[in-house]
Amino acid sequence: MNILVFSPLHPQGKNQFETRSDFMFKWHSISISISLTCSNLAVISFRINFKSKHILTEKYLKKGFLPMYQRFRKSQLQSPFFKIPIFLLLLMGLFGFFMHMIEPQTFQTTFDGIWWAFITLTTVGYGDFFPKAIGARMISMVLILIGIGYMSYLAFTVAEKTFAMHRKRREGYMKYKGSQHHIVIGWNERSRRLIQHLKENRQAIVIIDASLSHLPAEYTDFSFVRGLAYEIDTLKRAKIQAAQQVWITANNAVSEDIADKDTLITLLSVKGEAPHIFCAAEILTEAQLTNAKRAGADQIIQSNRLITNAFIECVSLPHNQ
User: Under 8 Å CB-to-CB from 179, ≥6 apart: which residues?
Assistant: First the structure.
């Protein structure tokens, strides 16, 4: 007997099973295509984002974070003020944990042990916690000796840093921190009288001179910058940008021509760093007056002419006739 199995045909001549298979195949093909397209877009987007972030990160590292970290590493990580507290914190945590493990009936929590280690290490000794077992007391002796040594070292380091800063300030190697101050260049009788006058008017004063090793004791209230006044580093240490006025006195230790040349070079350096600042310069010779005006002097003081006029007045007095 022949058995015929009939199945409903699709309008195109396919049965339902074949139609469903084709439909599922096409659907999966479309899904895969969409997935691949999304994946490609995601990869492209990730690459773009990664590249942009990499560029921004590299730029940030070069200009921002990396130099800042390097400065921090050089100045802070190598400093005893950074190393000692970190070491003491680790030491307190270690000894506090050991005391809790050795004598838990006295130091019931780890924090009690850390608190005891902190009080013992800083040589305060409240007495609210103290060890009773022999092993714990031996650990306490070691911690006390370490605490005395490190606290003494810390106090010595602080004193040494303070003394070094005071010495640098006294010898003129510290950078001035203020603003709206008067800068007096040169150390002579004229500059000393000018400083006394500015002091009476309660003006902040910075003295620049290369010949002094340190300021005399009666002038220690003023700021001192040691160096040649025409050098940019010296002017920056005197904070020339924030100054109010600059007074340049002539150097009496050299000839008048050389003194005027030094004054002109200093004047050019000052005006180059701070064109807005008022600057008065002492000129000794007539030949350099024009150059001083060209260099930007706001006020020119001819000390030799003033002295000459004083002599002429003395000659013309009645008792000399």
Answer: 239, 242, 243
